[in-house]
């Protein structure tokens, strides 16, 4: 099956098309990562709920994973909305989707999905710091 070259976007270099393809590929990889996130959330959620006598830390962990998952879901949904705006709704924007993303970066969708991802990264980094500080505080036997 051969495609007609007349169907290709006019006045676009191969680099411009590569950048647009890469943007869509990145969104697809984000969808894969979201699937991993959903799987890990489900496993952790079921594990925490299966604990018979929950301590306060169990409830805090449950709240933490629910918050991180909710923010991940919101971020993924807004990223998909932004790509829909760039690649479908405003496809004839001067400079195509790449220029749309650069020039329209004050739109609420763009601002909120970036803010959500930043907060999610802070929460994830905080958990890593907590785990590392806990692991560092465990006394270790000295081996000769």
From TrEMBL:
Keywords: Membrane, Transmembrane, Transmembrane helix. The keyword Transmembrane applies. The chain crosses the membrane at residues 27-49, 61-80, 108-129. This is Uncharacterized protein. The lineage of its organism: Eukaryota, Fungi, Dikarya, Basidiomycota, Agaricomycotina. It comes from the Eukaryota.
